[in-house]
Amino acid sequence: MTTSSDNERHTVYEYRPGGKGFRAAVIRFLCRVFVRTTLAWWPLRGPLARLMPLVNLALLPVPRLRSTECERVDGGTWRGEFVKPRGSAETTGALLYLHGGAFVFCGLATHRRIVERLALRTGLPVLSVRYRQLPHGRLDASIADAVDAFGWLVRRGFAGETIVCAGDSAGGHLAFAVALHTIGTGLAKPAAVVGLSPWLDFDSEAKRTHGNARKDVFIPANRLARVALLCAGGDGVVDPLRSPVNGDLAALPPVLIQCAEDEVLRCDAELMAQRLAEAGVRHKLQVWQGQVHAFPVLGDALPESRAALDEIADFVADALARTPRTP
User: Fold this and answer.
1) The pLDDT of residue 1
2) Which one of 81, 131, 163, 172 has the minimum C-beta count within 10 Å?
3) DSSP-derived pairing of the beta strands 237-238 and 255-260
């Protein structure tokens, strides 16, 4: 592991070598053959686009872990699963988890693997949120649902400053958006933000020309601009302020970002780390070799995904320990 830090600006960069095992190679192969191909050619509009929810439905039969318990939540425009270790006592903190899927697909079932394991590793309850996505809602609807889910945790009795906002890919975007919203509107600042391969910049030019655009076995970089336009474009233009990397970051809580070495969204991870350093926000960026986009979502399928979840749990525990409580 290579680590560099700047104590004055509270920045940490870690390079995690490895990821050369058989399982990791199989997952990379399957992603390149099936996932990247599907995402490159699947229509974003029309009848076929409405079949994207089948990805989530296909995983509904996957059994839950017996060591966790789940409460279904009806948030009106959003649905959720409040997951916690079975028989656990009340805690003073919680996680808000927002799934990825390019604001187009995935849901509660696709991300149960990571949500349950985060609950077990942290000992905290995790609210997993199915927010509105295209074609049923654009970015504003997704953010509104995520912010309301944060409010649900507060109404449940968790102080805002004890809630960690986390998410992968598009959900990573929402995790930052929720934190920026709560801070900007005078609500309590979350304890921390965790972004797993987060999509944080809707300007796709740097990603299209980056060397990882060809290496990424998961995301076709040339489609990101189209999705961003459908999701956040007004009058055919995406306002730069819709991208969290361009927000007012100075008041953000501690941040952990994890990404794969060869994925195209490494661009966004490194850009956000640079902006956080400039804003003086304590943060850690981990770049993992040999992994695919949002690999921690795989849960216990890989030793690296297990290690990444352990890193998240340690980061969450440290962030909550550092957070001053409101009397």
Assistant:
1) 58
2) 81
3) unpaired
Averaged over 313-317, what is the pLDDT? 98
Hey, CA dihedral for 71, 72, 76, 77, is it positive or negative? positive
Q: Is the pTM of this model over 0.85?
A: yes
CA atoms within 13 A on the CB side of 303: 11
DSSP 249-292: -TT---EEEEEETT-TTHHHHHHHHHHHHHHT--EEEEEETT--
What is the structure's pLDDT at 41?
84
Q: Return the biggest CA–CA distance within the chain.
A: 54
Q: Are 267 and 170 in contact (CB under 8 A)?
A: no
Distance separating alpha carbons of residues 122 and 29, to the nearest angstrom: 32
Q: Name the DSSP letter for residue 65.
A: P
Q: Which of 279, 274, 298, 280 is nearest to 288 (CA)?
A: 298
Backbone angles phi, psi at 108, to 5 degrees: -65, -45
Cα dist. 224→11, 220, 314 in Å? 29, 7, 32
> What's the Rg (C-alpha) of the chain?
18
DSSP 236: T
Please give the backbone phi and psi of residue 50, each rounded to the nearest 5 degrees, phi first: -75, -5
Q: What's the mean pLDDT in 200-206?
A: 95
Tokens representing 171?
A: 């959900």
For residue 7, the model assigns a pLDDT of: 42
Count of Cβ atoms closer than 10 Å to residue 87 Cβ: 7
Return all residues near 54 (Cβ < 8 A) that are at least 6 apart.
Answer: none
Instruction: Name the residue with tokens 């970089």.
Output: 221
CB 39 within 8 A of CB 227: no
State pLDDT tens for residues 133-185. Answer: 988 899 999 999 999 999 999 999 999 999 999 999 999 999 999 999 999 99
- Positions marked catalytic: 169, 263, 293
Average pLDDT over residues 318-322: 94
